[in-house]
Amino acid sequence: MLILGIESSCDETGVALVQSSGAPVPTLLSHALYSQIEMHQAYGGVVPELASRDHIRRVLPLTTQVMQEAGKSLQDVDVVAYTRGPGLAGALLVGAGVACALGAALGKPVLGVHHLEGHLLSPFLSADPPEFPFVALLVSGGHTQLMRVDGVGRYDILGETIDDAAGEAFDKSAKLMGLGYPGGPALSRLAEQGDGTAFKLPRPLLHSGNLDFSFAGLKTAVLTQAQRLGEQLEARKADLAASTQAAIVEVLVKKSLAALDQTGMKRLVVAGGVGANRHLREQLNAQCAKRKVRVHYPELHLCTDNGAMIAMAAAMRLQAGMQEASRAYTFEVKPRWPLDAISQSV
Ligand code: KG4
Ligand code: ZN
Fold it and tell me: What is the pLDDT of residue 335?
């Protein structure tokens, strides 16, 4: 079965083809991505209307590209999958509209995918895919969650952020240090040259006794520190970046270890854009090696938004019998859509 996946929830247009042939893990045949980062950079963040318009421009050329690269034609596609939510409403509508139009024209069914389920299952696209069950740390621009994952569609949330997401903490701290958008990669690059112990920044909810996160206070602490530095900020920016990163990463690592202790699991899966962070990977690898816990990550280029994870999530849902593709080509996107809503919990 050949599944075409279309991602358009935010500032990346992604299209991919995945083959599902009864093997435990479907295979990725081709994928193509267009990042709008440069376009939004001038505004210091994503401009939703510009994002939607650009998705319209990119989605069909990218589709042609993935078909060519896989040596397939559109008629070979069995299911057209798209991101139904969460994300920017206008951006989501582009992917949903194109997917449903393609499905109707080809006479093939369509399937709306949850963006976070895409991130969560993206490590299955790597050369060393995980096995169920596992603890998942989902860290993206809009979400920070620890989950117990027992199978496709079987997700129990163990803890989540009560305010800002980890990616947002990176982005907002980077912005007030004048590092531009997207802040995560910029801040982590600068942090490589700094000392992570230079400034004492709060580790919110570190000892809360539960698995929830809070990052809003950290951003305020970074702002206060930057103001205190005044003219010295420029010279100490790398230290401040490294200290900010160290605070975020320490909380993510300690809470992940607590989730592993709580569930007794020996496998951790990290997904979402912040999963690309090198310091986070180093710290998790070191701590998990000590406890004989295996950690799985998506390939670096598949940590941030892409079409491959959407095609993969659709393939795995279909294979697990969790969902059927539909020939009703009406669509409704879900800008806000908690992952629990699609979970058939244990
Ligand atoms: O998963 P994603 O592409 O989009 C959402 O679904 O939100 O995640 C984007 C987030 C942004 O906040 C970005 O700054 C962050 O991931 N990010 C990073 C790194 N690469 C991307 N944060 C820290 N270090 C990185 N290397
Ligand atoms: Zn995402």
Answer: 98
Q: Taking Cα atoms as reference points, which of 66, 118, 123, 119 lies closest to residue 299? A: 123
Nearest residue by C-alpha to atom 7 in ligand 1: 141
Give me 191's structure tokens. Answer: 């942090």
Find out whether the beta carbon of 87 lies less than 6 Å from any atom of ligand 1: no
**pLDDT less than 70: residues of the chain:** 345-346
207 alpha carbon – ligand 2 mean position (Å): 28
Tokens of 30: 């081709």
Q: Looking at residue 22, what is its pLDDT?
A: 80
Kindly give the pairing relationship between strand 27-35 and strand 12-19. antiparallel
Phi and psi torsions of 234, nearest 5°: -55, -45
Show Cβ contacts of residue 70 under 8 Å, excluding neighbours closer than 6 positions. Answer: 17, 29, 30
| Confidence (pTM) | 0.96
298 lines ligand 1 (CB under 6 A): no
In this structure, how many other beta carbons lie within 10 angstroms of the beta carbon of residue 74?
A: 14
With CA atoms as reference, report the closest residue to 146 among 192, 205, 91, 94: 205
Is there a shared CATH topology between the 2-121+302-341 domain and the 128-297 domain? yes
- Please state the CATH superfamily assignment of the domain spanning residues 128-297 in this structure: ATPase, nucleotide binding domain (3.30.420.40)
Dihedral (Cα; 168, 171, 174, 178), 10-degree rounding: -130
> What's the confidence (pLDDT) of residue 344?
84
- Token representation of residue 112: 């709306």
Cα of 140 vs centre of ligand 2, distance in Å, is 6
Task: Report the C-alpha gap between 310 and 312 in whole angstroms.
Answer: 5
Question: Tell me, which fold does domain 2-121+302-341 have in CATH?
Answer: Nucleotidyltransferase; domain 5 (3.30.420)
Distance between CA 43 and CA 54 in Å, rounded? 15
Q: What is the pLDDT of residue 346?
A: 47
